């Protein structure tokens, strides 16, 4: 015989007034409609004050504060940022002084150079791999390997070596090159490569010693940049392994040598959340202070949105219905400002 099912007596339920209950969301956090002709600042303020929308505004606020106070803004990115057409946005941010240093991986050199040289990049890997032609672009390998070998001979890093080669070339589209712009503006650009990960490593012109020497020199430069991150902002845009690992070692080195880097903002942004960026960018570096933020979204949408937001906020545009945004801020002039990629703090 089946046992009789027990039913809880809900008549004895203890209730409470909803007015006394703590609520996480209220009408003050709701979005507001944006009328036609509104400024971008008004759009940002119209978003909900909750979750990802709040995080977007928090990133823009931290970035604008660091920029205005002359703190380090270190812009880390994977090669995909270049591939999806965002190099002109990054160059513009560098020219304005919104970025004080770059760190990227070896594949970014490939796409940055090919776009400067040809105006196009990114081969179709599947079919090319089938017939053994993947990564066999002659000019790409020749120019990159020559630049890197020359950089090793001069004792400079890979980022500067490749950037200088693009800047001094007659490539028709070199003005949109991120690495060339870094050299032109005196902004440190570091490239962190792993042997065998990039197409030009397969070619006979590749020199393993030069790859190692120039990438290691860039690690030393990165550690110096990281040592000045106090009250600054670190971005990791789209690197799932290389940059999170390299950054963590640079941070440990800086702290071990006595540099105070315990209060800064870290931002990880990618299509999905992944383990190493979450722990090495967002969580571990900010355990003692500061804040780590994760944003999920497509680079081609999120990067222009953040860039437009920080330029708008930094320019001092008020969110008034009848007030139009001021014109484009003039590019920084003067070697002292270009060398750091920062704006001096007002006294």
What does this structure look like?
The protein is an alpha/beta fold and 347 residues long. It has one domain (50-319, 331-340): Deoxyhypusine Synthase. It has helices at residues 40-46, 51-68, 80-83, 87-96, 106-118, 125-130, 138-154, 158-167, 178-185, 208-226, 242-256, 275-283, 299-314, 335-340; strands at residues 73-77, 101-105, 189-192, 233-237, 265-270, 291-296. It has a 6-stranded parallel beta sheet, sandwiched between helices. Helix 10 crosses helix 11 and helix 11 runs parallel beside helix 12 (275-283). The chain is globular and about 80 Å long.
**CATH second-level architecture:** 3-Layer(aba) Sandwich
The CATH C-level class name: Alpha Beta
Mean pLDDT score, rounded? Answer: 91
Largest sheet: 6 strands, parallel
Low-confidence stretches: 318-347
CATH topology: Deoxyhypusine Synthase
- Basic shape: globular
- Helical content, roughly? 40-55%
- Assembly category: single chain
As laid out across the biggest beta sheet, the strand order is 3-2-1-4-5-6
- Helix/strand order: HHEHHEHHHHHEHEHEHEHH
CATH superfamily: Deoxyhypusine synthase
Distance between the termini: 86 Å
DSSP strand tally: 6
Counted by DSSP, the helix tally is 14
How would you classify the helix and strand content by structural class? alpha/beta
Total individual domains:
1
Radius of gyration: 24 Å
Question: What is this entry, summarized?
Answer:
The protein is an alpha/beta fold and 347 residues long. The protein has a single domain (50-319, 331-340), classed as Deoxyhypusine synthase (Deoxyhypusine Synthase), CATH 3.40.910.
